[in-house]
């Protein structure tokens, strides 16, 4: 069920004539489109990464005993809520940066794939944009690295998201 | 226009032969796919819930007269901006938790539906994941309940999002 | 490749008969659907706007020398991290408001388009909702304007997102 290796959705010979006349655009947001499948893979990796941020936050909260809600205190036998711990705040800033950049990147890439870009370019753009965000998290929240490591990782995905937005705008501006 | 009760997109007899040969995958992201329709329903409920968080925040701000912007002060005849009110911050933490978890869950579920999972499993997964988030908001922001209520609700959607991501990865990893 | 001016996906005369019998619903999430193309355009504009918020934040951080991470200090030759600058915090509040409202609006509009609304209504709804958010950012983060300017812009998109959610719920509630 999952191992259809070709992009042509033609299970029986009798359907060839019908599908040969179907424009490729019809299947852009379908798993048979390699670009969309590539998008699905990298989106899953980014979502897993974002979920890891929650675990990182929880680990830092446990380690530094910094809990933000009174009902969480029984987890640590501590006496009061605390805010502003450095390690917790660093992970939370990295997480918020993800919300501000990864979610728009994922939505924009979906629109970009739907606009029917060149397959080779599109897959490269998705791979680089997603990899840069994985790197960004590493140098921000896992091992703090001196600048400009983080700025470069940030700028890569930022630029790619802009490129995708401009591409879609150029494609579809007449429907505004 | 909205009451097409069957999933078969065959309006006229003459089109049967063409559509009988069309693979089902083509229509995964279409309302005629019951899994996608199920996704649309639960996504709408989650979006409505997230919008409610804004109203909850506004209510707490009004009640405790905690306004973050100088230009909002005329709403309360108060004299200065304030930050850090407990009730406002609790709702805002719950809202941020939504951003960190509900949005990835919604995007991931869309990718999961597009990957063509087993319909029965997929609908169950979407229903449980979305319901757990509705419960999470209730025990976090509406009626604060002792742990582990919130942790369990959080972990349910978290696990389901991971499951969806892994499923999509297994399906499409060769397109990486 | 990008300049197909008509919405009819019929590249060759021989395919007309096959496509004439294909229901329109199959192509709702396709660029040949003018509503979806309209959605793509406005979503690109909103994503570009959200990216601008990052640049606005960076500009305010540079201007006021308010850096949140020790490794950023070499950018300003400053001696310590700082938090809570008024100008930085205003832009960040506006950005967070975007996350809370623009992302749900974009996801909800996608679901709304997928539910097959009336094309004229749908395009109007998307245009107004997206324009209101562009206005919201302007009166919040660029030129602070007395209330109720911001509340009105906020309420417009808020109401439209609710409308879309209710529409999708009414369409698809039987698949819950």
Corresponding CATH superfamily of chain A: Membrane associated eicosanoid/glutathione metabolism-like domain
CATH architecture assignment name of chain A: Up-down Bundle
What name does the CATH topology of chain A carry?
Answer: Four Helix Bundle (Hemerythrin (Met), subunit A)
Question: For this entry, what is the oligomeric state of its chains?
Answer: homotrimer
User: How confident is the prediction overall: mean pLDDT of chain A?
Assistant: 78
Give the overall shape of chain A, derived from the CA principal axes: elongated
Low-confidence segments of chain A: 1-25
Main β-sheet of chain A, in a few words?
none
Strand content of chain A: under 5%
Catalytic activity (chains A, B, C): RX + glutathione = an S-substituted glutathione + a halide anion + H(+)
Membrane topology (chains A, B, C): Multi-pass membrane protein
Transmembrane segments (chains A, B, C): 34-56, 149-173
Pfam families (chains A, B, C): MAPEG (PF01124)
């Amino acid at each position: 069920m999952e191992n259809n290796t070709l992009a042509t959705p033609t299970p029986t010979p009798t359907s060839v004539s019908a599908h040969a006349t179907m424009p490729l655009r019809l299947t852009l947001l379908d798993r048979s489109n390699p670009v969309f499948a590539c998008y699905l893979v990298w989106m899953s990796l980014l979502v897993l990464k974002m979920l890891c941020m929650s675990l990182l936050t929880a680990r830092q909260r446990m380690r530094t005993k910094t809990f933000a809600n009174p009902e969480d205190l029984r987890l640590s036998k501590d006496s009061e809520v605390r805010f502003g711990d450095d390690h917790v705040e660093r992970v939370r800033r990295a997480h918020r940066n993800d919300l501000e950049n990864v979610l728009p990147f994922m939505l924009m890439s979906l629109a970009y794939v739907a606009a029917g870009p060149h397959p080779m370019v599109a897959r490269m753009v998705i791979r680089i944009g997603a990899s840069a965000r994985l790197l960004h998290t590493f140098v921000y929240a896992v091992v703090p690295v001196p600048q400009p490591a983080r700025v470069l990782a940030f700028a890569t995905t930022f630029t790619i998201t802009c490129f995708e937005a401009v591409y879609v705008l150029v494609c579809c501006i007449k429907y505004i």
